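Retro notes (design track)

What went well: tokenization of the new backbones is finally stable.
What didn't: we kept losing track of which sequence belonged to which structure.
Fix going forward: every design gets posted as structure first, then sequence, in one message. First example under the new rule, 161 residues:
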């Protein structure tokens, strides 16, 4: 495994593939040297600084951790992380909006939601782990914040290879 740090990106080469991650993400390796965990650092702005997460096929479980370093409380600039199949994106967002803040903007029991964190704000952390078997290889999934007003701009792509 080779790890290169650049001013704007972290590039990790594993198994002949290269993964590029913006500097606001930290990754952890499992005992086999696979990147099976990512920490996304968030602030008060409604955006994920990581546009794409690629999960190596060798990871049986993947963890997404959030670290909110902003100044405002979650009632003002809270964020969550929700994983859905891309075709379900709009419906999950609508249903999450109806569910409201009491349900972290995720409809309880919504089977289209593959994984999600609670809403976090200033100084808070959250994480979610999920079995990668829920992700079909070479299929694109979307991760987003379903907090009202954020889903259009606060999203990214997740794929498994």
């Amino acid at each position: 495994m080779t790890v290169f740090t650049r001013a704007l990106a972290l590039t990790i080469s594993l198994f002949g593939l290269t993964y590029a991650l913006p500097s606001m993400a930290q990754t952890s390796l499992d005992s086999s040297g696979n990147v099976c965990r990512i920490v996304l650092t968030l602030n008060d702005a409604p955006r994920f600084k990581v546009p794409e997460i690629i999960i190596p096929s060798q990871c049986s479980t993947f963890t997404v951790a959030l670290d909110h370093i902003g100044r405002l409380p979650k009632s003002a600039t809270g964020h969550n992380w929700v994983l859905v199949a891309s075709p379900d994106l709009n419906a999950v967002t609508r249903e999450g909006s109806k569910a409201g803040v009491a349900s972290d903007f995720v409809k309880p029991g919504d089977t289209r939601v593959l994984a999600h964190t609670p809403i976090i704000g200033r100084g808070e952390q959250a994480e979610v782990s999920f079995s990668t078997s829920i992700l079909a290889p070479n299929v694109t999934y979307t991760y987003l914040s379903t907090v009202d007003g954020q889903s259009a701009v606060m999203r990214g792509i997740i794929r498994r290879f």
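Added context from the reviewer: Residues 2-160 form a domain with the Immunoglobulin-like fold (CATH 2.60.40.420).
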